[in-house]
């Protein structure tokens, strides 16, 4: 079992979880948790015992020197943190770790038991996959939910995917088994720039969380990082005619298959986020 340090008294907390590995193309999903940990000043309250779930020959411990000059080993694992965003009337539980190598059902059961101990009301899992999408267009984000009312409120579609799944899919199924409402968002990362990071995809996932939580998340340098990332990929594409042709083909496919009304809804949501953020910043 996961021991929670100084069990905090949380208000209707939402759980947001992401795991490095197969579910985390270009580190886009785990990048969201890293960003939220920073901007919401989250504090770690629990850690999964890595001995039970990780193969150290696959995910090796890392040795480094700390600020005092001491050599320390950091073991692979999963951490639980809590945050109290200033503009939100509920607390947040953040889960960030590696996809385990073994005992997935026990892993999920222990995480959900910890979330229940902390009073978790809703689980949001984040993932990222490689897809045939152009880097020059908005990053597509798909979402699913386990509860019909969540599907209706968030305008989501039930997933029709059939095939191999990762810890995100298993964790969401575990939520169903214990009647914990769950939402899952997946960002589509251009497969021809799969190396991390992909701040544009991280930003797209954050936008979905803002809609879900009805709060503006401080974005810091992420918007500029996303623009710099896109400019960098533009330069790489210009240096290779085959890649440039491929990107143009993806753009044409994307532009001709996207429904105008869907694009209009996306623009409207983005404008609403912009207005909320201006209000949060105290601008007129």
From TrEMBL:
Recorded superkingdom: Bacteria
Pfam family of the protein (one): PAC2
InterPro entries named in the record: Proteasome_assmbl_chaperone_2, PSMG2_sf, Rv2714-like
Listed SUPFAM superfamilies: Cgl1923-like (SSF159659)
The protein, known as: PAC2 family protein
